[in-house]
Amino acid sequence: MSHRPVVTRIAPSPTGYMHIGTARTALFNWLFARHHGGTFLLRIEDTDRERSTSQATAAILRGMTWLGLDWDGEAVSQFDQKDRHAAVAHEMLARGAAYKCFASQDEIEVFREAATAEKRSTLYRSPWRDAAPATHPDARYVIRMKAPQTGDTVIDDAVQGRVTFRNDLLDDMIVLRSDGTPTYMLAVVVDDHDMGVTHVIRGDDHLQNAARQTMVYDAMGWDIPVWAHIPLIFGPDGKKLSKRHGATGVEEYQAMGYPAAGMRNYLTRLGWSHGDDEFFTTDQAKEWFNLEGIGRAPARLDFKKLENLCGQHIAASDDAALLHELEAYLAVTDAPPLNDVQRDTLSRALYCLKDRAKTFPDLIEKAEFSLNARPVIPDDAAAKTLDPVSRSILKTLTPQLQTGTWTKETLEPFLTDAAAAHGIGFGKLAGPLRAALAGRTATPSVYDMMLVLGKDETIARLNDAAT
């Protein structure tokens, strides 16, 4: 088993948005495959025809792409394989590992109601399990798997350890419905086998399914993959993550302005650890990731920690990559795109913005001065700093600024001296300068803004404010 090249998969159902838990499961599978130089596959489990939509499939692909989880080959549709699934059900029948069951839904319902009333087990035991073919009616039937009725099914799970299921508590599950369509339980196993999946890494809500699915592998004589059932994500209150805790869909996080690298780092760390490392790059995560690092306790979503990590990733980002992702964020939020002047000025400004921003809205707010076009209209707080005295000081500055070289080394002493000449400290001059350059009171440093805007634009803004 261990000599086979690693193949993992993510298999979401396209019945809505892509849940953050699905995204983390995809991330773990992707990291594990990339760590081992293996293959990471994407399968869309679209057998529920009434609930599956092309819009939901598109949302899954967008979410995966945004997170940077590149899958190998084409995304596969489970529904497209339905004939293959049915063929396996019939092969199980031929092997004596499954049987035709002619019991109607009504008969099963009557049995269950009686069992409930008599406080007996409602586990349905079909009378057709050992019926001779000669007694079969000419009627519709389902194919049920012949599950072992004694002993245990043991799952050796890479995360949960050894888990034992009593076979007398598991029924003969249906693998093919009476209309000839396969059940989810059969389809998953056939697809994983056919795709060569070696490691099934998924939520621990599937742990019981592993017992059922092991029986299908055994019935077909197929290699059983390594199971790794990971704990679910809980909200900050320790309850299963739901809408009341905040965003649960991956695309909501993109629209809230979290950078993909920060999101990857945070989700990797959610339920998996490598020593005390909190902040790490994607390359480090690929290098370190293993199943041993996954904990058994549910992970709690912590927005403060997410923001903190995202801030570190924004600060560590390459300016060109950051600008690219910032523009993608503006596009998904339907904000107006940057024009050429804004793009150019913002790219020059990133060096003095990115150390203090935790999200993209945060970054854009701090970048306001570089995105504004003249005339800059100050907000109320900034306007208060532009009193007649301040305006006259600004007016005296502009002719002198025309002549000097435009570097922090020359601007700093020049402005300090100018303030002193008017009998004030630089702090008193900074307010009107901020108002003139950015139209607000909280901004990057005055020197950084002047360097980013350049000499001509700075002087033009100061002149506007001085009049």
UniProtKB/TrEMBL annotation:
Protein's UniProt keywords contain NADP: no
UniProt short sequence motif 'HIGH' region, positions renumbered to this chain: 12-22
GO biological process: glutamyl-tRNA aminoacylation
Regions that span the bilayer: none
Position of sequence motif 'KMSKS' region: 240-244
InterPro entries: aa-tRNA-synth_I_cd-bd, aa-tRNA-synth_I_codon-bd_sub2, aa-tRNA-synth_I_CS, aa_tRNA-synth_I_cd-bd_sf, Glu-tRNA-ligase_bac/mito, Glu/Gln-tRNA-synth, Glu/Gln-tRNA-synth_Ib_cat-dom, GluQ/Sye
One cellular-component annotation, GO: cytosol
EC category: ligase
NCBIfam families: gltX_bact (TIGR00464)
Name of this chain's protein: Glutamate--tRNA ligase
Organism in which the protein naturally occurs: Pseudorhodobacter antarcticus
